[in-house]
From TrEMBL:
Protein name from the UniProt record: Cytosine/adenosine deaminase-related metal-dependent hydrolase
InterPro entries (alphabetical): Amidohydro-rel (IPR006680), Metal-dep_hydrolase_composite (IPR011059), Metal_Hydrolase (IPR032466), MQNX/HUTI_composite_N (IPR054418), MTA/SAH_deaminase (IPR050287)
Entry similarity comment: Belongs to the metallo-dependent hydrolases superfamily. ATZ/TRZ family.
Molecular function terms from GO: hydrolase activity, acting on carbon-nitrogen (but not peptide) bonds; metal ion binding
Residues covered by the Aminodeoxyfutalosine deaminase/Imidazolonepropionase-like composite domain: 32-55
Top-level taxon of the source organism: Bacteria
UniProt entry keywords in alphabetical sequence: Hydrolase, Metal-binding, Zinc
Domain Amidohydrolase-related: start-end pairs: 66-417
One Pfam family matching this protein: Amidohydro_1
Length: 465
């Protein structure tokens, strides 16, 4: 069993010499990587790299894979206190559960929820996450604080709805002022990346959608919105505009390379063509499709058409390995079985969709997502000395099918150790969990949540009475 204690005291430049290093050509043996000032500085043959830098400490991990951290292209940090409340519920849970819950949270509870969610992200191997924006009034700074506390790289969305769908809806001028201040506040931050969001197109006027998109384009940030996710939303758009939500965004000029659309599960062939032609990116959320969706995004078709996409959790289950497995499995069940496609993209597609492709979709392609010189040292150390990887014939596929978060021994962002064997090294996660256990029930009780079904626990209790 590897001695991981040296990881706790790393300072300055260091060379990692793992058993395998996951580079563009796959998981390769015999390589080492130099980390300097929080970035990957050099990659090369282990003997050559260590010989060029004889004075630097070397971390030998012959039974580990060093791979890029996963990137969650779509999540909601302020929903972690409600998690299983949505299980078994009809699809549009945001109206009955998430908006009431988030809107009722005070700043302290937003902070607790965000820190818990960030911890879950890191435990699942996500070194970066794209938050779609909190609907809690004026508490977005708590998401930033949670990311800094935990070390999670965060693309944080400022919601700019001007037609509802948030706890507070300021007037147009105030929305634009807040948006500009948000973009400016984190423009050069090493860990926090600003973004603007409109929850769904119908809660933003055409003028606001265009203005916010232009602000993002000018700032080099991404614009986020949920599009073509549920049947009722598509129908509402058809009634209001005569066009489906994605068609309407195209009609008003609110698509493009700086746009990240969550879900796009209900897309027509012509809408896929629109996505390809505009360079718009998509967050493919396979677990969300299973748990509360109306359809599965045609990710394999998107890949074949050159549509940019990355994997996202939608705040469902923060395990990057299980997310890749779900991404591939849903494509196999939804499309591959009927067409006799045994590959369904191959293991490499799903690893890239969780790392480099996700970075590109999230506006982080020049920051993270790969083990490459100049990029942030956001990476995982995976223990390969496990039954699941023994014997190993195709590690790329094995990571997709057999990988699990309990195989992650260490998580780094910006070259700094954040988690060791699942737990933070510089703050007390168990104290956080205890406080949440003591306070979350009251917060949930105070929120005007409307569930359609009783909990499974209550059904079991009623059966024995």
């Amino acid at each position: 069993m590897a001695n991981l204690d040296p990881l706790r005291n790393l300072k300055g430049d260091v060379i990692f010499r793992p058993g395998r290093l996951f580079v563009e050509s796959g998981p390769q043996p015999g390589l080492a990587v130099l980390i300097r000032a929080g970035k990957f500085a050099e990659i090369g043959a282990a003997e050559d790299l260590t010989a060029r830098h004889p004075d630097l400490p070397v971390i030998d991990l012959p039974e580990h894979l060093l791979m890029p951290g996963f990137i969650d292209t779509h999540t909601h940090l302020t929903q972690s206190l409600g998690k299983s409340l949505v299980f078994g519920e009809p699809s549009e849970i945001f109206r009955r559960i998430w908006v009431p819950l988030e809107g009722s949270l005070d700043a302290h509870m937003v902070g607790l929820s965000s820190q818990l969610a960030a911890l879950e992200c890191l435990r699942g191997g996500f070194t970066s996450a794209v938050d779609a924006g909190t609907r809690s009034a004026g508490h977005i700074g708590m998401l930033v604080d949670a990311a800094r506390q935990t070390g999670l790289r965060l693309v944080v969305g400022q919601i700019c709805n001007d037609l509802g769908g948030a706890a507070v809806v300021p007037d147009r001028a105030e929305i634009l002022r807040i948006a500009a201040a948000h973009l400016a506040a984190y423009a050069s931050d090493p860990l926090i990346h600003p973004s603007l969001a409109i929850s769904i197109p119908e809660v933003g006027s055409d003028e606001m959608l265009r203005d916010v998109l232009q602000m993002c384009a000018d700032a080099g940030a991404i614009f986020q919105t949920h599009v073509n996710e549920h049947l009722v939303a598509v129908e509402r758009s058809l009634v209001a505009n005569g066009r489906r939500p994605l068609e309407h965004l195209a009609h008003i000029g609110a698509l493009g390379p700086q746009v990240l659309i969550a879900h796009s599960t209900l897309v027509t062939p012509s809408e896929l063509k629109i996505l390809a032609e505009t360079g718009t990116a998509v967050a493919y959320n396979p677990v969300a499709s299973v748990w509360k969706g109306n359809a599965i995004a045609p990710a394999l078709q998107m890949a074949s058409m050159g549509i940019r996409f990355g994997l996202g959790t939608d705040g469902t289950r923060a395990d990057g390995f299980r997310l890749m497995d779900a991404g591939e499995s849903l494509q196999r069940a939804g499309y591959g079985l009927a067409s006799g496609d045994g590959s369904c993209g191959g293991g490499w597609l799903w690893l890239e969709a969780a790392t480099s492709m996700a970075a590109d979709a999230s506006g982080l392609g020049g920051v993270t997502g790969r083990i490459a010189p100049g990029l942030a040292a956001d990476f995982l150390l995976i223990d390969l000395d496990r039954p699941e990887f023994t014997p190993s014939h195709d590690l790329t596929w094995e990571l997709v099918r057999y990988g699990n978060r309990d195989q992650i021994d260490a998580v780094f962002t910006n070259g700094q150790l954040r988690l060791l064997q699942g737990w933070p090294v510089d703050w007390d996660a168990r104290a956080l969990m205890q406080e949440i256990r003591e306070t979350s029930a009251k917060a949930i009780a105070n929120a005007p949540i409307h569930r359609v079904h009783p909990t499974a626990d209550s059904i079991l209790e009623a059966r024995v009475k």
